[in-house]
Design a protein that fits this description.
The chain is globular. It is α+β, with helices and mostly antiparallel strands and 91 residues long.
């Protein structure tokens, strides 16, 4: 019996490697738009965050998104990500 490989991703906030299914994907679309991809299957460049608010705050403070996407991220993007994060926590 062979073990199935679990895909691992690194959190841009805490820098820990965790299984992909436990993380939330932040996606940059071809229209330069940033959205939360809870399914993990949409097209575009992605960065991963743990599903807790502390990692989002760390990523903002350490400019984790800017490093992942190699570009300046406007503050409006961070604000919208915080709102989407809060909505996904309440569900």
């Amino acid at each position: 019996m062979s073990m199935k490989k679990i895909p691992m991703r690194q959190c841009i906030g805490c820098q820990e490697m965790k299984p992909k299914k436990e993380m939330i994907r932040i996606l940059k679309t071809s229209e330069e738009e940033f959205i939360l991809d809870v399914t993990g299957r949409k097209n575009g460049r992605g960065a991963y965050l743990c599903s807790n608010r502390e990692c989002l705050e760390k990523a903002i403070k350490q400019k984790g998104l800017e490093r992942s996407f190699k570009m300046h991220i406007p503050s409006e993007v961070y604000d919208s990500l915080k709102k989407e994060f809060e909505e996904s926590e309440t569900e």
